[in-house]
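Worked example 2:
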Amino acid sequence: MENKNDIVKRTLHTAGQLFVRESAPGAAKGRKICGYAIMFNVPSVILGATDRSEEREVITPSAVTKEFLDGCDIIMTMYHDRQKVLARSNKGKGTLSYRVDSKGVYFEFEAANTANGNEALELIKRGDITGCSFVFTTYYNDPEFVERREKKTNGYTEVTYYVKRMTNIYDFTVTTKPAYPDTSVEAREAQQRKAREIREIRERIGYYEKQAKARPTKAEAIAETRAKIRECETLLK
């Protein structure tokens, strides 16, 4: 049985919200990396799915405030590798700055002239790194911290977990593969299409299995039906 007093550590990702701020004409090349580490009220990609349900996550504005962040020791890293430090804010002070607005949590830091700083700067400029992630903890099974909502449509259930409060944030990170593309409508639609395709294939398998049972004496028909079932199962992989 799930215990609401259990603290759960989670990682969420934000895509397409990372850039290098351009310097003024005639000035030295800009080294300030900026972006959004957290986006409010935007559904994640599908975190888990079956042929009849899917699960997503949403960070609400109440989950993260400036006062809350000022109480955390947040390290800006590359790929969640705490050996690849880019900046840091310890109790609101340090080389990592941030603000909380209606959109989410915006951050800035000056890339240090180090191997990690130069690598991050170059990869972000080139567009190889496009997103951010953050690691947080919360009482995931306590409805005061995370609220579970369901929406049912034609036998299909959409479950959304609304994170309302957190207990800590450990790091922000720049990443090549954000799994939380909250700014990408195309990505969400692709996930939904995939879920529909899986349901349709499973329905076809069920239909072919019924056909095989209905024709127990027709070996050729049964072999053909089983071949179709294997073909459908291949599409599920």
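The chain has four helices and 14 strands. The chain has two domains: 8-183, 194-236.
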